[in-house]
């Protein structure tokens, strides 16, 4: 079993700015999609986590470093790994790659919260799955 998740995407015209370069904030959307797909690969969905366990997984902090621009029709891969898990949160590292070249890297701190927005324990079922992927 690989300890990472891979999500592929293609850059569309709507993702770019007037200069044809991917607008910087769109990388956050790409990273979110990759994290959601990682949760699906673990056998969960965000809707299920809310309905079955009463939690949401939210971003507490995001540190992103842009290394190279990406352009219209580029094909990107986002590699996601889990670096650390605590009782209520976990940290993911996400690398955006184009043709084996790192174009952006992000460290994302995610927190499990209840319906009141208060940090709450990650459900054991989810924690066990996350632990299988800790780097």
Q: Could you please say which CATH topology applies here?
A: Thiol Ester Dehydrase, Chain A
Question: Do you know the CATH architecture?
Answer: Roll
CATH superfamily: Hotdog Thioesterase
| Separation, N- and C-terminal Cα atoms | 12 Å
Number of helices: 3
Average pLDDT for all residues: 96
Estimate what percentage of residues fall within beta strands: 35-45%
| Shape annotation | elongated
Q: What would you note in describing this structure?
A:
By secondary structure, this protein is an alpha+beta fold. The protein has one domain: Hotdog Thioesterase (Thiol Ester Dehydrase, Chain A). 24% of the residues lie in helices and 39% in strands. β4 and β5 (101-113) form a beta hairpin. The model has no long low-confidence stretch (mean pLDDT 96).
Highlighted features:
Thiol Ester Dehydrase, Chain A, elongated, alpha+beta, 135 residues
SSE layout and pairings?
Elements: E1 4-10, H1 26-41, H2 46-53, E2 56-66, E3 75-85, E4 89-98, E5 101-113, H3 124-131
Antiparallel strand pairs: 1-3, 2-5, 3-4, 4-5
In short:
This protein has helices at 26-41, 46-53, 124-131, and strands spanning 4-10, 56-66, 75-85, 89-98, 101-113.
């Amino acid at each position: 079993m690989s300890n990472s998740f891979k999500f592929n995407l293609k850059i569309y015209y709507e993702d770019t700015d007037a200069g044809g370069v991917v607008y910087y904030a769109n990388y956050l959307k790409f990273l979110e999609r990759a994290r959601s797909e990682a949760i699906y690969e673990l056998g969960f969905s965000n809707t299920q986590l809310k309905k079955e366990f009463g939690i949401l997984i939210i971003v507490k902090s995001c540190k992103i470093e842009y290394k190279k621009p990406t352009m219209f029709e580029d094909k990107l891969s986002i590699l996601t790994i889990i670096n650390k898990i605590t009782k209520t949160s976990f940290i993911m590292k996400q690398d955006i790659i184009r043709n084996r070249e790192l174009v952006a890297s992000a460290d994302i701190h995610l927190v499990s919260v209840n319906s009141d927005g208060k940090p709450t324990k990650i459900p054991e079922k989810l924690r066990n799955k996350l632990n299988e992927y800790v780097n």
